[in-house]
Design brief:
Number of domains: 1
Low-confidence stretches: none
Number of strands: 0
Structural class: mainly alpha
Shape: elongated
Number of helices: 2
Helix content: over 70%
């Protein structure tokens, strides 16, 4: 596996994670609206989960940006 393959795989993984977090955030919002977030989880805990997923999304967007910039340089 050469450097280009590794860069492509890293990019694919970052964008995959971004996609999954986007879906998860959407699901979190729907669950908060409908109240269907499980029996052992409180509303406040669900809000914390949503906010954590939003932060995680920002981190992965930053990672993807760094990967893309790195790929353009080389």
């Amino acid at each position: 596996m050469d450097k280009k393959d590794i860069q492509q795989r890293a990019s694919d993984k970052a964008f995959s994670k971004i996609s999954m977090l986007t879906f998860e955030i959407s699901d979190n919002k729907t669950e908060l609206i409908t109240g269907n977030y499980g029996g052992d989880i409180t509303y406040d805990e669900m809000v914390m989960i949503l906010e954590g997923n939003k932060k995680e999304l920002k981190v992965w967007e930053y990672i993807a940006e760094l990967i893309e910039k790195s790929n353009k340089i080389q």
